[in-house]
Amino acid sequence: MENIKQLLSERESTHGDFECASMDFDLLHDVIYDSSVSLSSPQKYALTMIMVKITRILNGDPSEQDHWKDIAGYALLGGDLKNEGENEGDKS
């Protein structure tokens, strides 16, 4: 149990206070899921994970590079852009 408490304490420095972050996440969640825009499952999932990362940036360490890299990765996945440009050289 002590290891878990230590881990949570360490994560709070980069991820922020869990309770405060959960309130911010709720607000972001409502904006996306109450939208009238029809989203695919991968888009919803990617946006959810991006919301998690935004919440961590706002409540934790905004200089934590992993948060920003993860947002970029989820944006590529949600926008189905992960393979875009791979065949650019094949175009004539």
Which helices and strands occur, and which strands form pairs?
Blueprint: H1 2-15, H2 18-33, H3 41-59, H4 65-78
Number of domains: 1
Main sheet specs: none
* End-to-end separation: 61 Å
| Uncertain spans | none
Tell me the total number of β-strands: 0
What structural class do you assign from the helix and strand content?
mainly alpha
> What's the Cα radius of gyration?
17 Å
Overall morphology: globular
Q: Given the structure, what is the number of helices?
A: 4
Order of helices and strands: HHHH
Helix content: 55-70%
What integer is the average pLDDT? 88
Protein name: DUF6378 domain-containing protein
Domain DUF6378: 8-81
InterPro entries: DUF6378
Pfam family, one: DUF6378
